[in-house]
Amino acid sequence: MTPFELLGGADKIRAIVERFYDAMEPPLAELHACDPDGKVNRETRDRFALFYIGWLGGPQDYIEQHGHPRLRRRHGDVPVDIAMRDAWLRAMTRALDEEKVEGEVRAFLDARLADVANFLRNKPG
Q1: Are 35 and 41 in contact (CB under 8 A)?
Q2: DSSP state of 78
Q3: 3 state DSSP class of 19
Q4: DSSP state letter for 39
Q5: Which residues of the chain have pLDDT under 50?
Q6: How far, in Å, CA of 58 to CA of 3, rounded?
Q7: Assigned fold of 3-119
Q8: What does the pLDDT read at residue 71?
Q9: Are the beta carbons of 92 and 20 closer than 8 angstroms?
């Protein structure tokens, strides 16, 4: 089974994404397009949900709509240092905790998400 299936499909992943963006600390949230109330906007949330669904083995709608993710290129102009990486991981950890993601799929996600977050670092410190 894919992580997409183990998590319970698109609805569960979308719930994780909502909690993830709601858990973002201000310096991290401010890197995204936000609504007037300061919350990361719907377009950003929906786009990441499509990516995350596909990355976890679900339908590849993100690639069909936006092309290959090319994560390093898409994040190249975003300053990602250790503090920003860690803030991103804290938000994702909180989202996974709140959605009660546990067991082998949680261990897989914790490891892979840490790898990706570290891979996207493009600034020292």
Answers
A1: yes
A2: S
A3: helix
A4: S
A5: none
A6: 8
A7: Globin-like (1.10.490)
A8: 77
A9: yes
The letter for the amino acid at 123 is K
* Helices assigned H by DSSP within 23-101: 26-29, 42-55, 61-66, 71-74, 82-98
Q: Measured between alpha carbons, how far is residue 37 from residues 16, 29, 41, 49, 90 in Å?
A: 21, 12, 9, 21, 22
- What mean pLDDT, rounded, does the chain reach? 93
Bridge partners of residue 97, in order along the sequence: none
Which percentage of the chain shows pLDDT scores above 70?
A: 100
Q: Confirm if 59 and 53 have CB atoms less than 8 A apart.
A: yes
Q: CB under 8 Å to 17, separation ≥6 — which residues?
A: 45, 48, 49, 52, 95
Q: Which two tokens stand for residue 96?
A: 């996974």
What is the pLDDT, as a whole number, of residue 46? 97
* Residue 14 tokens, joined: 């979308």
